[in-house]
Amino acid sequence: MISHTGSLFNNGPVGRVVETALRAQRSQGALGLDDELRRFVRTMSAADTSRWLLPVVSVAALLDHTADLLRSQGPGFFPRTFTERLDAARGGAPGGDYLRTLAGLLRAADQEPEAGFAELPLADWEAAARFPELLGFGANWVYDGGYPTLSDAVAAFVEAEHPFCSETFPRLVADAQAVLVAFPQSGALSANVTRWIPWVSHDALREVVRTIDDHMRTGH
Questions:
Q1: Long-range contacts (CB closer than 8 Å, 24 or more residues apart) made by 76-81
Q2: Alpha-carbon distances, residue 11 vs 7, 85, 132, 161 (angstroms)
Q3: Tell me, what DSSP letter sits at residue 75?
Q4: How far is CA 192 from CA 18, 32, 140, 173, 183, in A?
Q5: Contact indicator for 120, 31 with CB cutoff of 8 Å
Q6: Euclidean distance between CA atoms 116 and 36, whole angstroms
Q7: Cα 138 to the center of its chain, rounded Å
Q8: Rounded CA separation 169/149 (Å)
Q9: N- to C-terminal Cα distance for the chain?
Q10: Tens-digit pLDDT string for the chain (220 aa)
Q11: Which residues contact 92 (CB under 8 A, 6 or more apart)?
C-alpha cells in the first residue's frame, strides 16, 4: 500500500510554513520571519474559500501535531526533503520546539489586523500565489517576443483558447480585475505587482479584460 502522507509535509501547508521560515533564514536578515508569516497569513486569507477549507488555526494545529510526530516517531518518519528544509530553517533549535514556535507565531499573526500592502508589499512568492494567471500569461505570451504588441499577444491568446473560453478566460480576467481594484495607483501597482510581473500595467490589464469581454460578447 502506497502512503501519500509525505505530500502533507513536502507540498501541503506544513511544508509551506517551513519553506517560509527557510526563506527568511536564507535571506540573511533581508526578510523577517514575522513579516513573512504575516504574508503567509494574508495569502491564506485572500479568499473566502481558502479560509473555509483551511483556516490558519488549522495550519498551526498541524504544526503542533508534526512536532508531536517528530518527537514520537523521529526524523525517519518524514520525507527527507522535509527534514532537510526543517534542519536548514531551525538554526540549531530542536525540530519539535521550532515547529511549535512557528505555530505560535502563526496564531499571533492571525490575531493581528491583516497587513496592508503599503505597510508590507507583496513578496515575489506572494504575487505568484495570488496572480498565477498573470504570471503564466507573461511567460507564455509576452516575454518570448513572438508578438510585436501586447494587443497582438492577447488576440493570439484568445484565438488559441477558443472555443474553450469559459475554461481558461475567467481565471485570467479575475486576476487582472483583482489587481486593478487592489492597486489603482501606479506607485502601488509598481511596488506590489509590476516588480514581480513586469508586463503588468493598468493599461495592459484593461486591454486583457476588454479584449476577452469583447470576444465573449461577440464570439459566443
A1: 78/6, 78/9, 79/6, 79/9, 79/10, 81/10
A2: 5, 12, 17, 30
A3: G
A4: 24, 18, 21, 18, 8
A5: no
A6: 13
A7: 17
A8: 20
A9: 48
A10: 346 678 889 888 999 999 999 999 999 989 999 999 999 999 999 989 988 999 999 999 999 999 999 999 999 999 999 999 999 999 999 999 999 999 999 999 999 999 999 999 999 999 999 999 999 999 999 998 689 999 999 999 999 998 888 888 999 999 999 999 999 999 999 999 999 999 999 999 999 999 999 999 987 8
A11: none
The model's pTM is 0.89
Provide the pLDDT for residue 7: 85
**Which three three-digit cell numbers place residue 79?**
520525507
SS3 label, residue 1: coil
Find the DSSP H helices in the chain: 6-10, 13-26, 33-44, 48-53, 56-73, 80-90, 95-111, 124-130, 132-137, 150-161, 165-182, 186-189, 202-218
* Distances from the Cα of 197 to the Cα of 13, 29, 113, 137, 200, angstroms: 25, 24, 27, 10, 6
Beta-carbon contacts of residue 9 (< 8 Å; ≥ 6 apart) = 15, 66, 78, 79, 82
